[in-house]
Amino acid sequence: QVQLVESGGGLVQAGGSLRLSCAASGRTLSIYAMGWFRQAPGKEREFVAVISSGGSAYYADSVKGRFTISRDNAKNTVYLQMNILKPEDTGVYYCNTNPPRRDYWGQGTQVTVSS
Description:
This protein is mostly beta strands. It is built from no helices and ten strands. The chain has strands at 3-7, 10-13, 18-25, 34-39, 46-51, 57-59, 67-72, 77-82, 91-97, 109-114. A hairpin with a 5-residue loop joins β5 and β6 (57-59). The chain starts with a strand and ends with a strand. The model has no long low-confidence stretch (mean pLDDT 96).
């Protein structure tokens, strides 16, 4: 049974930074593309960034140039460095494989950006 645990969220002022972590247990995910997704209040969950098994990264236009996704396969962990945060980045952030598997969704980590 795979478990993904997100952490690192919090309350930050606009312009600030946060680093999210996603630790996987149950199986190694190094062969999978891994993504970050987020859900703002009242909105559907949306794609944020993805990193391939080989380390290639792709981003939603809304975060390009501000967010950086990375992975440490030895630790079975994926990271999301978020800089120059904006109030519209507020939401619950989740990691999952990409494309996401329904049974892999975790609890997420809350990110709140104040203006």
